[in-house]
Amino acid sequence: MRKVTTSSHWGTYDVLVGDDADAATIVGVAPRPGDPAAAPVMRNVPGAQNHKSRIHYPAVRRGWLEDGPGADQRRGRDEFVRVSWPRLTHLLAGELDRVRSRYGNEAIFGGSYGWGSAGRFHHPQSQLHRFLNCIGGYVGSVGTYSNAASTLTLPYLIGAAGGNDLRQRPVSWEAIAEHADLVVSFGGLRASNTWVTGGGRARQTAAPAMAAAARRGVRFVSVGPIRTDTDAALGAEWLALRPGTDVAVMLALLHVLITEDLCDTEFLERCTVGACQVRAYVLGETDAQPKTPDWAAGLADVPAEAIGALARRMAAGRTLVNTGWSLQRTQFGEQTVWAGLTLAAFLGQIGLPGVGFGHGYGSMGDYGGGSNALGLPVLRQGRNPVRRAIPVARIADALLHPGEPYPFLGQLDRYPHFRLAYWSGGNPFHHHQDLTRLQRALRQLDTLVVHETHWTQTARHADLVVPATTTLERDDIGAGQGDLTLRVMPKVVPPPGQARDEYVTFWEVADRLGVGAQFSEDRDVTGWLAHIYTEWQQRAGLDLPDFKEFWAAGELTLPGRQLPAGLLEAFRADPGAHPLATPSGKIELFSATVAGFGYPDCPGHAAWLEPEERLGAPRSARFPLHLIANQPKTRLHSQQDMGEHSQQSKVGGREPLCIHPRDAAARGIGEGDLVRVSNDVGSLLAGVRVTDSVRPGVVQLSTGAWFDPSAPEVATCVHGNPNALTRDRGSSSLAQGCTGQHVLVEITRHDGPPPPIRTYDPPVY
């Protein structure tokens, strides 16, 4: 047995490889020595690597092969036909040429949203977009399912550069530990979220850094409906509000600061615009509703006294206000980050060391954990001749309503008429909402092309299925933006069947379309790895090892870039000399630009807009439980759901649902029961975990269980994917972000025979 070190989006780890007479196989994994908090999700790797759901051969949907391109209700439930590589690439090149010749390149949607590889070269999205740019371009997407509502709003408030600093150069955990007295986190600080970083990390440092801050005396308050969203090691106080009421509580905290003269008026006058509009709104002068603690208590079901006491504590010491990304994945999600920034501004501590405002602590592993000074090697995608894009979470709308207008970032655009969608390295059946609606949408296409390693539901809905290699089956280079180690990712085992690198497929199709030399630049994989490394080395301008030395060494330590002691530190010190890229040059607590758009669902300042999916809202009379569809602790999104670590968390093979003892007893539900969760969108089956870690009225079901619609007479998904229930609409007219975090449901015990789980069974072809 040999040991090989590799990297992933959940960190660096060792792969244990057994060499038998026929082929190398993955027999185990182990944490890399010296990693203080290695992610246990690595245990999914061996079971997933050679799982029965791997795609071994090129395949074409039978209906598409026999009847040709076009909308087809059989898509997603049709048979597949195995074909040779030459035939698949011939069909793919011919269909791309047909679509671009007849309808133009705006009829091609270049999807590939996802986390397909931590490698710098075999990054599926970069490969696909480079290829499509070589043949005339494509319509892409704007934003991410993770945080579009906030990232598209923040530039109006603190400018694009300020928004980038908030994500890429936030206050470090070391500075928080040294300078902060109190961290108030709306949405918790889940350690399992910090295992995940785009490109991975050499060492998992976020959770240990949080714990170190707690040991140094920093106090934590976790505001949210799930106690375990903040690790017990932090000793956090839990303010267990109703989901979706964070903005109401923030406004009530502002009310206390204003009425008790606890605001930093000097900071507000010097560094912000719009404080007067916020004051008028909070005091009820504009709508006759003062945003008092009593008012918020009625919405959030927390004591008014607790809100007042927290506001005074925040003003009395050095405080960091953090909003997790989860909060903005809901209707009116823009308001959560806007209200959090406004609260921090009224405290007047933005720009001070270790405190102020954060948006993402506990959401990603590199947040507050360092930043390398050299950048990273990158595969250049080239220029896209098509200058159009849609909001990432509006793909189903675009497919179902081609040509119809939609509001977005102050403009009124129209959805393109897509004929072909191309996905590589992404799984919309994980990310998207209302999966039944997504199925209908995908059936409107002429052609869906999918590169995949496994038979996901996305692959099952494809017309042309391209079997791809996994990270362990190819050479690459890995590192994340916040990482200080560039790592070799060597090929560990051969691919199964006829699976091959996406790069080889794109090169062959590009060659058939007459742009092979433009796409490949006559380099094989090794040639490209050497090229992007050398290009990066020259750009860095430092005396670094050449590519051969780097590859032989296995890794390279990168110089770090010091994170600022405080967010917008230079701006705070001298707003005139270091203005923000906003119309005023200051923090815009009231944005005249946004107000000028006239959106009723996103006014010009932080405001309480009651979401439909909320306890106490009219819909809750029919669906009295609030389901939180948060990120899973046992896998990265839906990746390797069939792996050991993910499977061990299941209850009777279904995704676990956490419910409070009071709500379980009221429904005659016990630990380990199979339940049906439903609303007017859809239904699912899940296994029960009874726990007081969720507040009464709230249930929790993580995203990422592979969608299984194999028994529609029982449930929309018999495996437990919460997007069988979530409503497919944008966060607001401004950002059109994802709204899949919150949904109202009812739960009943399922007493009939449980249908088998078929989502991992590959189609016969």
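That was protein one. Protein two is written in the same sequence-then-structure order:
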Amino acid sequence: MAKTPAHYFNTSGPCNKDEHYMLPPERRLGRVMELVERRHWFVLAAGRQTGKTTSLRWLVEHEQAQGERLAVWVDLESAREDPSVATAMRSVVSAFDRSLAMQCADLTRPDDASIEAWLRTPTDAVVRYVSAICEASPKPVVLLLDEADGLVGAAMVSFLTQLRVLYLSRRDAPAPASVALVGMRAIRDYTLSQEDRRAVTWLGTTSPFNVTAELVTLASFTRDEVGELLEQHTTATGQRFEDEAIERVWFLSQGQPWLVNALADYAVDRLERDRSKPITAAHIDAAKDAMILERRTHLDSLLARLQEPRVRRVLDPVVAGGRLPFNDVDADLQYVVGLGLLRKVEGRWEVANPIYREVIPRALTASAQESLDQPTAWYVGADGSLDVPKLMTAWQTFWRKDGHLAAEGFSYKESGPHLMLMAFLQRIVNGGGRIEREYALGKGALDLLIEWKTQRVVVETKLRRDTETEDEAHEQIVRYLDSLGQSEGWLVLFDLRSTAPWSERLFQRDRAVDGRVVHVIGC
């Protein structure tokens, strides 16, 4: 067995080129470097664990090597969620001072007495400290303010206001040449309450971050970059990723940096440590399943946001396959996109990657799944196959007795029926299969593919309203069957007409459509 390499796939914290497999950060920073060169003040917004801090650290090293500017990376995490102006500004100034001490040891910094005197008036302490640094520096100063969107309330208002003062006075007083606010949100989302928005109405007028620059972001890895990153492990250890495994990493992650690294790390570190054996697509699927069940930190932190009202407003119609009740410039939609939960493909919004597609409904229905008394063995035939007709009959019984009431209790109201069905199926399939999900936003349907041993069971759900026809649903599932090369599938049709009796809503019938057999399950 090969010796453990010095490098490995990183799943926690910033990357270090001496320890981790990583791609050159400069590839993702072309626009950022251009904005710094032009002395812009701008916002860098990207989802959690997409490489922001790694990129910023590289940028500091790059600027130091170039020698034309003094770049400083400042982590504002210590001021996070502290609404008090006095204590938050003390944390901010301390973060500035620590960063300069570590990154710019030769630069003369304000003494402790001066800092304490400035902090007696916290509403201009940042202005005074930064001005002093800019005056002392022989080079233009570039500030990279990480976790800037973590400040809240009055502290956020004061911080933004002080930055604006620096920006407006930069021609007559010492001020940074360029400032980047770095986090997961666009500048319009930094202040969320109406009171805070009133205090910084200038954000839409003379804000430095609205007038002179723009929102930039970090793109996900491309398919080729995923292969390049995995190839670094092969070069270091001799253990290769089969082509199907590389494709599976790309498909499941869609290039999201943490997911790429986490899938690869789990496969090589916990599933196949014998470097003479290749990593297969089966390894990657097993890694994905384990990551979801373990609720790794990245997934947990992302899913914690699902109950935020603005996130729920966007994702509820997405899960239900409905239409978004707003346009692409809606602030809530852009917030969810900034979190990395959605992306736009060929003009249509969709959940960002297959892993998120699976973990979102699992998280929303976790308690419902736990309460279901539906052992997998009830639905497995003597030959080990999944008895789908029996499963669907049991689903109808459950839906009438308990499911429809449980669905009404979900905070995600529009997608409640879909979520309840997914919880029911997931509880069964956990015993030996998996469910692939596709949220077909705009067509009012949810596509599911149950994979059980050699079986592939196509299921489509649709909400039936007075104005919708069953024919439309049949056409949609036939297109789905064609895309998967299947000859039969199941259509679960939820009847939302509250006045219709159960005897009318619950039915089972088969229908032949364009040479395909559709089993219709009325609910």
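The first strand starts at residue 41 and ends at 45. Keep this in mind for the problem set.
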